[in-house]
Specification:
With 232 residues, the protein is an alpha/beta fold. Helix content is 42%, strand content 19%. Strand 5, helix 6 and strand 6 form a beta-alpha-beta unit. Helix 1 runs antiparallel to helix 2 and helix 1 crosses helix 6. The structure holds iron/sulfur cluster (SF4).
């Protein structure tokens, strides 16, 4: 387990899907297997994220400086936010309650408050995006004052001959007013997940939850267990 934090956003989302998947993500992530289709979607998501970040030409990319030293992200983020009147940061790190989150784009306003942009490559606002955003809001709001929290997703493509055909490829939804309400529930989930990680691997059986909201990358591993049990 990395120093300084126990959970990340992706582990939290994994834990909401399955306690066993969370445990494997923390203690045996090498078992994960992603399909070619999943890898293609990850790549598409990254490309869309880069294209949004390009709209902040002076943005400082914390991941470019610290690479995989994720435990150090919150320290550098705090230094940069505290020494600039305004600044745009990519992959800004925030840590609260043993949860580390990295925000895609953070803009510090002159009054010190933050505009947060989370970039999602889908064209609709799914429940998973909302849960993901709610965790980010929970952590960041305990570290800094948030002015707005926005989800940026793909704008629906307008027909070429429509007046909107030259409009932005990005659609922004301000979720600031909605996210605070989820904090109590998030705190409960975090406590449950921390407890799971103090025990051995859960024996959770496979089922429908292995496929939604994402196909679990440990399906081959859990299926092996089932095959061994049926041999007995
Ligand atoms: S395959 Fe299913 S049971 Fe196994 S870790 Fe993934 S979600 Fe959990």
């Amino acid at each position: 387990m990395p120093q300084g934090y126990i959970l990340t956003k992706s582990k939290y989302i994994r834990g909401l899907q399955c306690d066993r998947a969370l445990w494997l993500d923390v203690f045996n992530p090498k078992l994960a297997r992603y399909s070619a289709e999943q890898m293609r979607r990850f790549d598409q998501g990254r490309e869309f994220e880069y294209s949004f970040k390009a709209t902040f030409p002076d943005g400082v990319d914390i991941s470019a400086q610290l690479k995989r030293d994720t435990g150090a992200y919150p320290v550098l983020t705090a230094q940069l936010l505290d020494t600039h009147d305004t600044v745009d940061l990519f992959e800004a790190g925030f840590l609260y309650n043993d949860v580390l989150v990295l925000a895609d784009v953070v803009h510090r306003r002159p009054d010190g408050s933050l505009d947060i942009y989370e970039v999602k490559s889908g064209s609709t606002l799914s429940d998973t995006y909302r849960r993901d955003a709610a965790l980010q809001h929970y952590v960041i709001s305990h570290c800094r004052q948030i002015n707005t929290f926005n989800i940026v997703h793909k704008a629906r493509t307008a027909p070429v001959d429509s007046p909107d055909s030259s409009s932005s490829p990005f659609s922004t939804i301000d979720l600031t007013a909605d996210l605070q309400a989820a904090h109590t529930e998030i705190e409960h989930h975090i406590a449950v997940m921390k407890d799971i990680l103090t025990h051995g691997e859960p024996a959770t059986p496979t089922g429908q939850h292995c496929l939604t909201p994402y196909p679990c990358p440990y399906q081959h591993y859990c299926a092996q267990g089932i095959r061994q049990m049926s041999l007995f």
